[in-house]
Specification:
By secondary structure, the chain is of the alpha+beta class. It has 16 helices and ten strands. It folds into two domains: about 130 residues, FAD/NAD(P)-binding domain (3-Layer(bba) Sandwich); about 140 residues, no CATH class. Helix content is about 40%, strand content about 15%. β2 and β3 form a beta hairpin. It is globular and about 65 Å long. It binds flavin-adenine dinucleotide. The site of flavin-adenine dinucleotide has 20 residues, from α6 and α15.
Length: about 375
Amino acid sequence: YLKWKAPDILFRNTYDVLAELTDNQDLIAVWCGQWGDMGLPPKQSTFLVHAMIARHYMYGGYYPVGGSWRIADSIIPRIKAAGGEVFTYARVENIVIENGKVRGVKMQDGHLIECPCVISSAGVSNTFEELLPADIAAKAGYERKLKDVQPSSAHLGVYIGLKHTAEELGLPKTNFWIYPDNDYDGAVDRFSENKTEPFPVVYISFPSAKDPNYLERHPGTATIEIVAPAPYEWFEKWRDKTWGKRGDDYDAFKQELGERLMTYLYDKLPELRGKVDYYEVSTPLSTNWFGGYQRGELYGLSHTPERLQQKWLRPKTTIPGLWLTGQDILTCGVTGAMMAGVLTTTAIVGVRKIAPLMKRIYS
Ligand SMILES: Cc1cc2nc3c(=O)[nH]c(=O)nc-3n(C[C@H](O)[C@H](O)[C@H](O)COP(=O)(O)OP(=O)(O)OC[C@H]3O[C@@H](n4cnc5c(N)ncnc54)[C@H](O)[C@@H]3O)c2cc1C
């Protein structure tokens, strides 16, 4: 639908579109300064997604008061009031198909939840490669279709705790995006080939400085988060080991990467040296362990021009009763995932029934 309505320019790569406007590489680099927000540098990313991210920053950013857990906390009572139930730490083993139709989901603990309709937000790779029986995914053509999309970049996270308030430490409310130079694509390639090269992008964020009621919950403290890309392949050899027990070599590698990332923080804010109380490093295996993403993807599917032209990345699947939602059918981000929810709801209940909800959203 988008392809039919929207100009072709939106589906070209970001760099090519911007290079038609200027040959000033510094200016292009400034325009693409938030490429980390979709995890793809400008010569690989889709201009449409770049344009949406760049435009949304013109109106500033948003932080949920109380932290990101408040999103779930606000939605769960609505789900329950409508007769729904929410289970946490409840892994689906597989989607049960009978006579070609959805019959329910089998949970990892052996329970079968019977239902005629399953909406999966676990990501398309998980849904078709892990949760659906392989013969059914292949017969429906999804095994072949998945070859046309790639996982987004994997990442490292450093979660830092400090025993001073953001105000005492002078922490900013803005994010830092740190790059080695203006050649973002080159920096990604160099780093992928040689891990001693500088990180192609380092994002530093100050959640406690942004959250107006953080100190009511955690007086006298502050938090900082660092995110940077790291290829999944670097960690693959520890894939089958249990979280927290992956061995000394894994811990040493994590520590080395964590220390490297901490130098980016101290370089920008040297006054924090000696003030950090604690930090913990996550790797793509942590994202796999906690979020289920098979290759530790930061943003589900990669936002390449090809991905946005896959007509099968939509709510309705060819398997009766199975629907998709979440970032993979629209774009990454909390808003992308939320609007994917609206899209899937519209596809299931029809445009007429969704109209009152849309009125409330836009009034
Ligand atoms: C470090 C980091 C920072 C980010 N920062 C921002 C930000 O500041 N702003 C922003 O807008 N976006 C941000 N994003 C992106 C944003 O979090 C995602 O785009 C968004 O959460 C996608 O929502 P989703 O519902 O599609 O998928 P998810 O939020 O990933 O939800 C999918 C869920 O499916 C579950 N699941 C998978 N397999 C199974 C299974 N077998 N059984 C049961 N459950 C399963 C997973 O556990 C997960 O809870 C960030 C992402 C990361 C990783």
